[in-house]
Design goal:
The complex is a heterodimer of chains A (113) and B (809). Chain A has 113 residues and is mainly β. Chain A is 4% helix and 40% strand. Chain B has a five-stranded parallel beta sheet, with no helix packed on it. The chains are: A mainly beta (113), B alpha/beta (809). Bound molecules: siroheme, flavin-adenine dinucleotide, iron/sulfur cluster and FE2/S2 (inorganic) cluster (FES). Chain B: Its cofactor is [4Fe-4S] cluster; siroheme; FAD; [2Fe-2S] cluster.
């Protein structure tokens, strides 16, 4: 049995509202987002279009706009919105005692680049 | 080839030529005369040009390339003075031009009330671009305008001049506004709406005289009221321009008489537009003129077609003022009214009914269903079945859902959507089916909403209904979050003193919780430009380049470009750049087109450190990533060059030191050249200064990116200080007024160079006030973001955590 299903990736306060930070893993980076309503989301930090760094995008509602060519990605589903097609992996994330926890799977399931 | 001569490049004749060339490009060799010194443009869009919401270039309907493609000989700026029908020639100052067929399309001339003073400078009409330019020139920042005439034209002029910042009074002879299109109740609501915009409306006002020494100063009414005025706009009506036809002996009524094929009493002479009379009718709206144009083109090609009169409807093109009227709504024996009022929301609807048929309709405040009612009027539909719910619109008929889209969905296929161009619903849905999936291509294929534009909303709804999710509105508002345009939002931020993004979203009814990547950067800029002391700049509303003060590259790394003031550097700076490039393994070092050095391919987490190193050598951010001041290019000037007339390098450095750090609607680039040889390429910059013996020539609104355009001269000034003052005042005026992502050349095309000159060059108090407001803004924003971020924000540039090592274990 695994004792820790959730991994502490950092302090909630370290991410501004409507902002993001990235977390490095051996197989690439994930982006951790904080919305205006203080929800957190974790997604692969590589846009389905041309791998743009989503953590550098503009966060609005529960969506982020990729900084390279403006694809809009849902933080909840990882799906590209509107006419664009594609998806990024999402990982369950939550906040506890001011810390951000992400389900451990993100360390292993990370798709190789 | 047969020779076709056309007199007047107007809305009607332009459309006629289009139809004709489409059907048979080889039929005629065409010569087109126009008294105005330009070709065809969309006259009905002069109101948005006057208000600054559109530029003249945007309303041109036929450009040089179109005339060239169709081999039209253009004789613009040449007035025809006579027609000799026996010899089949038209006569102008430059001589005679023979024709086989002649089309007269001379339109109308504005009617000027012959009261004393009507010919004073400052009295203008509203008919062509010259009138618009004259009004814009007069529209000083606190100028006063009197508009005589409260009809469609007068009210559009009044609203536009108000938008330009003038104090406006409308004088209307009748008891209520637009009495030909509106009943009294709707006229009252319209008056209230205009007054809410700060326009004074006087009804029952009869003009006695216009007075002034050498130019307009005031208007005196019959009842003795005196109203001060810097300009007087006469918009009291039009008269068909028929002098040519009359002198040529054509059969006349109140205008040139034509038959249903648009042929005059001379079989080789046709006439179209406002200069014709058909079956006792005169014309003043474009919809029937376009029908005439179609028929005339057919007649010229020897095909059969018949012009028929049809019902007309009217809408007022004043943003935010929803008004519609159609048919006959006078009281009368046997006529009944159905009226709906909601004073709280300013809504009024009235239907006039006779024998179970709708004869007329007037709507104010909510015109969403107007096309459906217009269809009932045109088709003389029997409404006895739906009479009880008729006033609530099509959504209530047949139990359909109450949904804004339902009204459009419920329209029958032959319902007219675009009144100007007579385009019905099925034509549009077929075009959508054939691949026209946005407004632009629909306009190109069907002409729907391409004239006055008031049906744009309906056409978009049709797109949305037909395409469902696939349709995204591109034209209307800033983005999907709001229907308001950039200009409207800027105005409302100032007028309602909105000082935070939340206030903007709440007060202006944003449709999303916190905007999107399109509107947030724009609103953030508007707020920081308008309220530099009160508003707190929001990094999360900035594009990544401005958030991280570096240009993002396609691989997610960044570029670093320090300022080199006026393009001047020294060995110490070059050494520091070289050291930094070594230390951070910068893959590419490049000399840019802006006279400085770019370090490309720097990793996010290195940014604060490379900046700190460059800061230590005295360098600051070059803002190569910002919608703000970029570079000031200079040439060597008097320091070394044998032709230099002034210290161009020195002035360039002073300008860069004055302007750096400021945020602007789009990027701003300057250059200063030491003489007219112009080695710094100053004539294609946002602001470009050319030094000459007598001083400095200040040019503005140049471009050399996606468009190329030479600067226009703002002013010539003798001293360096004035050159600096004018530049700062210009930049501040741009900051306060332009739409986000409009470079200065686009903005100046909208407001007009004269409008800019008035505020920056002529009005010295205003110039000083602009400079003062710029200084206040710089007191907050002129700081090196690199130093600030290197000291306080390094975290934001690094990963939140790094699991690479742990996992490797
Ligand atoms: C670095 C430089 C090219 C070079 O190697 O010389 C450059 C690089 C870029 N330019 Fe430029 N422009 C550079 C000089 C110019 C010039 C020439 C000049 O300034 O003398 C022009 C034409 C003049 C003008 O500004 O119109 C120019 C017209 C553009 C445009 C078109 C702007 C327009 O209004 O038409 C864009 C796109 C935009 O801004 O929206 C653009 C956008 C860009 C961007 C920022 C594209 C982007 O959004 O990522 C490029 C960033 C490259 C990077 O990854 O760092 N760049 N760009 C030049 C930097 C000058 C400097 O020292 O700051
Ligand atoms: C500000 C404004 C807003 C309007 N808004 C609307 C609207 O919303 N909806 C609507 O349906 N209508 C509107 N109209 C009315 C519409 O513009 C006219 O009905 C239409 O332009 C008339 O077309 P035309 O071809 O008859 O004449 P014009 O478009 O006036 O063209 C006639 C041309 O002939 C030229 N000409 C005249 N005499 C000579 C000569 N002797 N030699 C050579 N050239 C000559 C003139 O210079 C002019 O360029 C508006 C008009 C104005 C001014
Ligand atoms: S021209 Fe400018 S924007 Fe285009 S590739 Fe070169 S640097 Fe990039
Ligand atoms: S890489 Fe994200 S939009 Fe192109």
């Amino acid at each position: 049995m695994m004792t820790t299903d959730w991994i502490d990736v950092g302090a909630f306060d370290a991410i501004p509202a409507r902002g993001a930070r990235m977390v490095r893993t051996p197989q690439g980076c994930i982006a951790v987002f904080r919305t205006a309503t203080d929800e957190v989301f974790a997604l692969d930090n590589a846009c389905p279009h041309k791998k743009g760094p989503l953590a550098d995008g503009i966060v609005h509602g529960n969506k982020v706009t990729c900084p390279l060519h403006n694809w809009v990605i849902s933080l909840e589903t990882g799906l590209a919105q509107g006419a664009d097609e594609g998806a990024v992996e999402t990982y369950p994330a939550r906040v506890e005692n001011g810390r951000i926890l992400i389900e451990a799977a993100f360390l292993k399931r990370q798709a190789a680049e | 080839m047969q020779k076709l001569v056309v007199i007047g490049a107007g809305m009607a004749s332009g459309r006629m030529l289009e139809h004709m060339f489409e059907a048979d490009p080889q039929a005629y060799e065409v010569t087109l005369f126009n008294a105005e010194p330009r070709g065809n443009y969309n006259r009905i869009m002069l109101s948005p040009v006057l208000s600054g919401e559109k530029s003249y270039e945007e309303i041109v309907t036929h450009d040089d390339a179109w005339y060239a493609d169709n081999a039209v000989t253009c004789r613009f700026g040449e007035r025809i003075t006579g027609i000799d029908r026996d010899r089949k020639v038209v006569i102008s100052e430059k001589g005679e031009t023979p024709y086989d067929k002649l089309v007269i399309g001379t339109g109308s001339a504005p009617f000027i009330i012959p009261c004393p003073g009507h010919d004073l400078p400052g009295v203008v009409a509203f008919r062509d671009l010259e009138d618009v330019d004259a009004m814009k020139t007069a529209a000083g920042s606190d100028g006063r305008a009197v508009v005589i005439g409260g009809g469609l034209l007068g009210l559009e002029a009044a609203a536009a001049l108000r938008l330009q910042g003038m104090e406006v009074t409308v004088l209307h002879l009748m008891g209520h506004l637009m009495e030909r299109q509106l009943d009294e109740a709707a006229g009252y609501l319209l008056k209230k709406d205009l007054e809410g915009r700060g326009i004074t409306v006087l009804t029952g006002a009869s003009t006695k005289a216009i007075m002034g020494e050498g130019r307009v100063e005031k208007v005196v009414l019959e009842d003795g009221t005196v109203i001060p005025a810097d300009i007087v706009v006469m918009a009291v009506g039009i008269r068909p321009s028929v002098a040519l036809g009359q002198a040529a002996g054509l059969e006349m009524g109140r205008a040139i008489k034509v038959d249903a094929q648009m042929v005059t009493s001379d079989p080789d002479v046709l006439a179209v537009g406002e200069c014709v009379e058909f079956d006792g009718n005169l014309f003043g709206l474009v919809a029937p003129l376009y029908d005439q144009a179609r028929v005339a083109a057919k007649t010229l090609l020897g095909e059969d077609d018949v012009f028929r009169m049809r019902e007309l409807s009217t809408k007022l093109k004043v943003t935010g003022c929803d008004l519609f009227s159609a048919g006959d709504f006078a009281d009368g024996e046997g006529r009944e009214d159905i009226v709906f009022r909601d004073p709280g929301r300013g809504i009024y609807k009235r239907l006039v009914i006779e024998d179970d048929v709708v004869l007329g309709a007037v709507f104010y405040g909510d015109t969403a269903d107007s096309n459906w009612y217009f269809g009932l009027i045109k088709d003389k539909t029997d409404i006895s079945e739906m009479r009880d719910t008729l006033i609530f619109g099509p959504a209530y008929q047949g139990g359909a859902q109450v949904d804004p889209m339902a009204a459009v969905a419920a329209l029958p296929p032959d319902a007219e959507i675009c009144g100007c161009n007579g385009v019905c619903k099925s034509t549009i849905t077929e075009a959508i089916g054939a691949g026209a999936t946005d407004l632009g291509s629909l306009r190109a294929t069907t002409k729907a909403s391409a004239s006055c534009g008031t049906c744009t909303g309906l056409v978009e709804q049709l797109l949305a209904v037909t395409l469902g999710e696939d349709f995204r509105s591109k034209e209307a508002g800033i983005c999907g979050c709001t229907d308001l345009t950039h200009e409207e939002v800027r105005r409302l931020i100032k007028a309602r003193e909105l000082k935070s993004q939340t206030a903007v979203w709440q007060e202006l009814g944003w449709k999303t919780v916190d905007g999107c990547h399109v509107c947030r950067p724009a609103i953030n800029f508007y707020l920081l430009a308008d309220w530099p002391l009160e508003y707190q700049d929001d990094l999360q509303s900035r594009f990544i380049n401005e958030r991280k003060h570096a240009n993002i590259q396609k691989d997610g790394t960044f570029s670093v470009m320090p300022r080199m003031w006026g393009g001047i550097t020294n060995p110490a700076e070059l050494r520091a750049i070289a050291d930094a490039a070594d230390k951070y393994n910068v893959p590419t070092v490049k000399v840019t087109g802006g006279q400085r050095i770019d370090l490309l391919g720097v990793k996010s987490e290195d940014l604060p450190h490379i900046w700190a190193d460059l800061n230590a050598a005295g360098m600051v951010s070059g803002h190569a990533y910002s919608k703000g001041l970029r570079t000031v290019k200079t040439c060597v000037g008097t320091d070394h060059c044998r032709f230099g007339t002034q210290d161009s390098t020195g002035l360039g450095i002073k300008l860069e030191k004055a302007l750096w750090g400021s945020w602007t609607p789009h990027k701003v680039k300057l250059a200063v050249s030491g003489c007219p040889r112009n080695c710094a390429e100053a004539t294609c910059k946002d602001v470009g200064v050319i030094c000459v013996d007598s001083g400095y020539q200040i040019g503005v609104a140049g471009a050399a990116g996606m468009d190329v355009k030479e600067t226009e001269r703002l002013a010539d000034v003798p001293t360096e200080q004035e050159a600096i003052d004018l530049t700062i005042a210009f930049v501040q005026l741009y900051r306060e007024n332009a739409k986000y992502l409009d470079r200065p050349y686009k903005w100046v095309a909208k407001v007009g160079l004269d409008w800019v000159k008035e505020r920056v060059v002529h009005d010295l108090d205003n110039r000083a006030a602009l400079i003062e407001r710029f200084a206040i803004s710089q007191s907050v924003y002129q700081k090196d973001p690199w130093a600030e971020h290197a000291a306080t924000k390094t975290d934001a540039y690094t990963p939140l955590s790094d699991f690479r090592l742990e996992a490797a274990e």
